[in-house]
UniProtKB/TrEMBL annotation:
The chain crosses the membrane at residues 6-27, 48-67, 73-94, 106-128, 140-162. This is Stage II sporulation protein M. Keywords: Membrane, Transmembrane, Transmembrane helix. The keyword Transferase does not apply. The keyword Thylakoid does not apply. Coiled coil: none annotated. It comes from Paenibacillus ferrarius. Pfam families: SpoIIM.
């Protein structure tokens, strides 16, 4: 497993940078709204998990089609939304809502989606190995992808459970 992380750390770090840039822009943009604009709706853990699995699936497929580019654009957009929500909620409702609503599930969800983006970039990785004439590494790429996909699914399920049952916040 340690070898897998060494092989994939740069792909994951690239996605993390896209996410951080998105959060930065979202935070800078989020203070323009008026109170009451953002009204979260109640959702069960199952609904949250299914929604995040759909998003993870879109990230993976979009990445496979684009060599990882669309995966990172989606991660950038997700970061923007998170940054916008952070800025908006802290401006109108305070940091307590962030601590209770976002932080309990944030790291699990972020890891799950970053892992999906990394798996989405595997088409570029396979093409690179093919161009370097190293087809013997394809099975290792597939093994890494399946392992990372299992980790992503686990993180998304844990995040959905926490978000649906623990980190509920009402903005009033």
């Amino acid at each position: 497993m340690k070898g897998m992380w060494a092989r994939l750390k740069y792909l994951t770090l690239i996605s993390l940078v896209f996410f951080i840039v998105g959060v930065f822009y979202g935070v800078c943009d989020g203070k323009i709204s008026v109170p009451g604009f953002l009204q979260p709706s109640e959702a069960s853990a199952k609904d949250i998990i299914l929604n995040n699995l759909r998003i993870g699936g879109v990230i993976i497929v979009a990445g496979w089609i684009s060599g990882g580019l669309l995966s990172n654009i989606i991660i950038l957009g997700n970061g923007y939304l998170i940054g916008y929500v952070i800025s908006y909620v802290t401006a109108f409702y305070g940091m307590d809502s962030i601590y209770r609503g976002l932080l309990p599930h944030f790291f699990f969800e972020l890891l799950g989606l970053l892992f999906c983006a990394t798996v989405g970039s595997f088409s570029a990785r396979i093409l690179w190995k093919w161009l370097k004439n190293k087809p013997q590494e394809f099975s290792l790429i597939i093994k890494d992808g399946l392992t990372l996909l299992a980790c992503a699914l686990l993180m998304i399920v844990i995040a959905g459970f926490i978000e649906g049952n623990i980190s509920r916040v009402t903005l009033q």
